[in-house]
Amino acid sequence: MNEEEIRASIEAGDTALGLELGSTNIKAVLVTKDFRTVASGSHGWENTLKDGIWTYSLDEVWEGIQRCYQNLAAEVQTRYGIELRKIGAIGVSAMMHGYLAFDREGAQLAEFRTWRNNITAAAADELTKAFDFNIPQRWSIAHLYQAIMNGEESVRDIGFLTTLAGYVHWELTGEKVLGIDDASGMFPIDPATGTYDEARLAIFDKLELVEKQPWKLKDILPAVKVAGEQAGRLTDYGAKMLDVSWKLEPGSLMAPPEGDAGTGMVSTNAVRKCTGNISVGTSAFSMNVLEQPLKAVHQDIDIVMTPDGAPVAMVHTNNCTSDLNAWMGIFADVAKAVGATVTTAELYGRLLGTVKAARKDAGGLVNYSCLSGENITRIESGRPLFVRTPHSAMNLGNFLLAQLYGAFAPLRIGMDILTGEEQVESAGMIAQGGLFKTPEIAQQALADFLGMPITIMETADAGGPWGMALLAVYAAEPEDSRKPLADFLDQEVFRGVKSTTCTPTAAGREGADRFIKAYRSGLPAEIAAAAIADVDE
To answer: Whole-model pTM?
Structure first.
């Protein structure tokens, strides 16, 4: 489309908006029917550790959404000289899991407990045994059952339990629904029915502590929808919540709200069986769309769903790039102290460039990038830790490679279960995340570390908001001509998209194996570091 055609599409409302609430940024993109991003907005935010709970207030949620939308609308005005008044379809996605509980009148009952909290071990263990299905600590059902086990009085008053995306969608539409990927991080899904597993719902309701509650679980969970289904319309109240200037008209078609894992699968074209993707950021996760069920229940492997309802083996790590970003902040301070002027992009590019000359095992340096607890490595409290021996080769390239390896290490441990014990085959993974903006460095490190080809597409920077916008476009497709989601992505969205692939090298693989061996052997030191008091506690 040329600029005049884009302007006409925006004025006609022939567009889709994808909004995603991530851990450190809220982002929105406006796309036209050719899937091109024509405007975007963002707002940075951070979770708060409040009384031992990682949380965001709902006031922060709406302040961030509104500022993000204002930025996007301002870009439309600046670039195209028109006001944004109509949007054809909208989709909301957000970080998955967690605990958002409301009473029957819609009042919030407890602080929002995000995926980052490692406070539900007892509940997760008991439910995993009862269901014969892995229930991670961050899942909504683990948070609910832990609250019951803790005797929290507000549990009896729950009328609705949802995720962050489900909550925002509810406010915008009045509909208590959830996309199947996000729902699969609340409670196990039965692939045959496309909704919550009835047998496990019954098991939960019959647990001694649950039987005493005045509600049944199915009645307080959001309804489940798959990609392509419609999930309501933007109400007048919702339009005013989104756009504080009150210029946005109600009536936009709403796609099912989804989790960031689902939008990651869509934005990397990895929803077809035997495909896979990796998303890295504050947290990291790999997704392998399964051809067959896994042979065993694994504590470190989640079974979730693609947005169109296919089972996925998910390795989720609570930590990834936060510690690296903190070190980059130190290096930025150093640059400022010596009078150097450097942009963030230049800083990452130049410093990560030194990794090319690093030893493939990071010179014996080891980094534990645990800003928060990490389930896969059984780390209960976040204590980032850098370790070296007297004989380690301490230089900048080795240090930064240790940072990359340390960020990827929990993911590698989980992936080893899939490729080793379960023999899940993968010809390679498609990766996305801001870390890959520096060409090839992190991509090659990840390929060496996981021992498989890693592909980056030219759309990698688009990320989850764009993936959610694609799902909004897909929901607006005429039902009688709508293709399966995998075909829609292959044939319409990603046709002709360019990509680059890094394959593991023998030396890189050998060095990465030495690093992970040292990393595993040092985990007791990382666990012991939890004894260091947190200044915020």
So the answer is: 0.86
